[in-house]
Amino acid sequence: MGFSTAAVRYLRPAALCASLRPGASAAVSATRSLSVPTTNEEKTKDELPGPSVSTTLYWLFVKGYAKNSHLLQGLQKSLYGPMWRSRFGPFDVINVASPELIAQVIQQEGRYPVRSELPHWKEYRELRGQAYGLHVDTGPEWYRIRSVLNPKMLKLPEVFAFAPIINQVVDDLLQRVELLRSRSRDRTTVSDLSAELYKFGFEGMSSILFESRLGCLQEEIPQQTLRFIAAVNDMLTLSDMVILFPRWTRSVLPFWKRFVQAWDNLYNIAKELIDRRISELEAQVQRGEPAEATYLTHLMSSDKLSRAEIYVTVTELLLGGVDTTSNTLSWTLYHLARDPAVQDRLYREVNGVCPDRRVPTTDELSCMPYLKAVVKETLRLYPVVPGNGRFISENEVLVNNYRFPKKTLFHLCHYAVCHDEHQFVHAQRFLPERWLRAEQGSAGSYQHHPFSFIPFGVGVRACVGKRVAEMEMYFTLSRLMQHYQVLPEDGAAAVKPKTRILLIPSKPINLRFLARA
Ligand code: HEM
């Protein structure tokens, strides 16, 4: 199947944005038709091609695609065409792997789209009497939560208010890089960069959400922070296991109990951090000191979310915001190290806009088109969420002339689409230039379909953290470029991606950071 349990998870909680904006990408063809074709010869899903369960098992566990389910998307597309059906365990999934078909699904997703059902998350919340939150709530209840988050997360001036916090964390990252390279044998290498960037991502998101520093980039990471990071990892890993096994196995297999324990740890630490910060803010207000309009203050003062909903929502934002951004940063630095011409051009752009290592302002970031093109191209080659989902529960759907009943789960094969030569010339190459309007053509690019590049998802349920993630990545990369030239280790082999829910490096990325004069 082009659909793994891992995909289910992001289909799961992944992370939401803008409405369908045909202008979303730099090279959107305005003339393409997104309308749903209708003829009289409708077909049913039983007529769709797709692998048998045994073929799927063979691919996943004999051929090794369980770890590379992003590649299975392309393989299956070549065998079955752009739409096929996969059945495996509890899943019956319709895979769509062309921008036109993805557009058709999204056009019919309804007012309150659902990525996938998360029965095990819902069950945990009910077990503990917690609020459902962003990922489990559906319909108008989900929208109510989104409408509180969107203004603070998706409006640029609001997002820019997080710039000082993010830059403080980038300061710490720079110090950490300096420390690690000075300790390395050749005094330049930072080993396992993704692990360092994960801690950076965690510190960055928690600084915004909890308005407190957790010390992830310190030499001695505080115990509570270590427990928190471990709980996040455990919960996400176990979430995939729990959904695969039927309920009766819970008394014999340890996964459900450990899943509940991991959620308990995660929720309790988040609750403690939030309560502590809220007490500080309340004391501040009582003393007559003005409270800054930061994230928690915004959620509290909106009066639209209960305290229980705030606990869950903030935890879920953290879950969506760490490894997505940190993995994208890892891949970007990996490519910059292997492509000196791209890195040099990026350095010249950053240095031209902000000489003498001056910290860029948000206005100055907007004068760095090549920086943005580099990040876009990284997200095209390594879409950290390689497959997305839509569970259309309310209505029947007509896609590619097949009629699907209510409660059909669609897997949007984003990885296959943004690696498609018909959409992107030299699709396997790292060519940031393709995103620069003035230079289209030099990189052989041409007008691609708006739904061929949707790394943050699409529609009203798209990623709520898109703007924050972009700003964090722009500051981090521009400032790293000001200080260092990055290079691969001598003779280092290429690092391929693998799917572990997200598209992550299959082995540690070690890079040399040479201080710029
Ligand atoms: C490179 C960085 C990121 C990428 C590529 C990414 C990608 C995605 C994608 C593909 C989705 C699913 C969207 C859909 O279903 O259409 C999503 C949802 C989501 N993302 Fe992100 N994300 C990133 C960073 C972040 C950050 C920084 C945050 C937190 C501030 C975040 C929080 C979320 C949340 C909470 C959802 C679920 C929203 C909902 O269901 O209403 N993401 N993300």
From TrEMBL:
* Entry cofactors: heme
Q: Which domain of life is it from?
A: Eukaryota
Family annotation (Gene3D superfamilies):
Cytochrome P450 (1.10.630.10)
- The residues listed in the UniProt record as binding heme, with positions renumbered to this chain, are 463
> Which is one GO molecular function term here?
monooxygenase activity
Keywords in alphabetical order? Heme, Iron, Metal-binding, Monooxygenase, Oxidoreductase
Q: Mind listing the GO biological process terms from this record? A: C21-steroid hormone biosynthetic process; cellular response to peptide hormone stimulus; cholesterol metabolic process; cortisol metabolic process; glucocorticoid biosynthetic process; vitamin D metabolic process
Q: Reply yes or no: does the keyword Metal-binding apply.
A: yes
Q: Which InterPro entries match?
A: CYP11_CYP27_families (IPR050479), Cyt_P450 (IPR001128), Cyt_P450_CS (IPR017972), Cyt_P450_E_grp-I (IPR002401), Cyt_P450_sf (IPR036396)
Asked if the record carries the keyword Oxidoreductase, the reply is yes
UniProt GO cellular component terms: mitochondrial inner membrane
Q: Which family does it belong to?
A: Belongs to the cytochrome P450 family.
Q: State the protein's name.
A: Sterol 26-hydroxylase, mitochondrial
